[in-house]
Amino acid sequence: MEEETTFQVDTEQVEQAIEQFDFDDYLLAQLDTLYERSQALQVQYQVYLINSEDILTNA
Known about the structure:
single chain, mainly alpha
């Protein structure tokens, strides 16, 4: 037979935990990660353009 598990949730404790979580720092970290990835993609794209131009010139 399957046992049914129930949980008692203290909503006040949950609200306090959510308040303590700093969403600003989280969002800033996410934005920083996105910026770093976009910079890396921009560099890769520039390398691609240079290599493509070299291939077409030397073909």
